[in-house]
Amino acid sequence: MTSLRLMLATAATGCATMAMAQQMAGSEADQDYAAALWEAMDAQSLVGTDPVLALPYPGTDPHGMMLETFYGDATVEGHSGVLVVKRNYGPEGVTADEVLEDPVEHLLSVTVMFQREDGYDPETNNWFWAKYLPDGSLDQNPEGMALAGLVGKGADAGCIACHEGAGGGDYLFTTDARLTEN
């Protein structure tokens, strides 16, 4: 009987942890912050109606078959931090030339990492994650949660769950350059 209670308690704790992880992202505050972040990126011509372009390179799921990645800084709500913007293009089989010829037609989403102020979430180096649709609205997971904030923290899938595997402890796959003081 004791081992059954222990198993049930462990299962309940695991379910509560997963539920808490899902609540760590997509809140109204996360969505508001993501909207302010989109405005900051738009002001730098990284998103929006006439963004700067770079030479696309081959990608893979969950991002896109062709990608553009930009590194820089942004200021959101008075905080300046490192910004990583990845434009995700498709469909499968799309070429770099096709993307350059008509980027609007091929843009599927924009995924972003923005390093927020110290104390936001030290476990993830204070990264804020967001996945936008081409119009700047937030994408959603199958359960309808807006993909903004600590997406995938403590879960088996999602931004943080994947990027935890990046070397160097910086959550970045595409560069080993030191972008932050952390």
UniProtKB/TrEMBL annotation:
CDD domains: cyt_P460_fam. Residues 1-21 form the signal peptide. Keywords: Signal. InterPro entries: Cytochrome_P460_sp. This is Cytochrome P460 domain-containing protein.
